[in-house]
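Q: Sequence in, structure out?
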Amino acid sequence: MKPADAFIDEVTIRVSAGHGGQGHVGFRREKFVPRGGPDGGDGGRGGSVELVADRNLGTLLDHRMRREVKAEDGRPGEVRNRTGRDGRSIEVRVPVGTLIFDADEDDVLRADLTRHGQRHLAARGGRGGHGNARFATATRQTPEFAEPGRPGGRQRLRLSLKLLADVGLVGFPNAGKSTLLSHISGARPRIAAYPFTTLIPALGVAEQGERRFVVADIPGLIEGASQGAGLGDRFLRHIERTRVLVHLIDAGSAAFEERDPVAGYDVIRRELAAYEPALLERTELVAFNKTDLLPEGERLEAAAAELERRGLDVFHISGATGQGVDALMLALVRALEAAEREALDPPAADCRA
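A: Exactly. Output:
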């Protein structure tokens, strides 16, 4: 299986709940009980379909070929007022961070599963039909009819995965995002000395002191990604939920000579803005990576000074050797804590006339 095929973040499935069972038409036939009354039982309820968030899943791959999910129908009612067995319900496991859209109703968002174990009832099972015993009255003592079961719910759903991560790593291809992720976490993304090594987003759990946070390595952007160049903007949705962005700039000698680092930084910012302008409001740190390959010089100092002048925190690191990574990690923890405080206590609105 190719790596790109192992990560599926968009699928469309059809879910169908079970139909309710038919009510039963029956009459008591017992010795010494003349004129036995109706005793037809109700039909069982059809099974439902629920989507359940599971933190052990990281892709929608399981649903790529499973395009229809159908729960079991309820069983018909039986004699002696016995209710038919309910149909078995189905739980569809999806990754945490899955958005559920109603594909039959103009892609209306139905649920956003952001917590492990969170559930969404996608299709409710049909109610079982009443047996004829339910319809007996003083004036109608022997009803010879029963209700059919109600049909179960049915709809087409579009599932869209947005990874849940605290920190997103962005930058040009081969900037060293995967190397940094492997250094600060237990993740083992594919690493090689050529562009577009990372073809799918990768997640890792980093630790700094007592703080643990999730870091996402987003496949490299290039100029024109928002118009489909390179890998396009397909994976940018996976940083929409992040609180902090780390913009990695390749400070390796060859890349540093080929591309002005500040101009390159501006290119990535424009691509982020073209995809979702709100991404520009996220807390952002800048890290010049691979500084072990390039001695400190005037060009590097000038680029860092220009970005600091814009109010950015700039770090010089090496994801391969770990140089400067501790300082970056401490800054990330501070930035995450500040973002969490702001989310709990948003700034008051300006009430001036």
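The first helix runs from residue 3 to 6.
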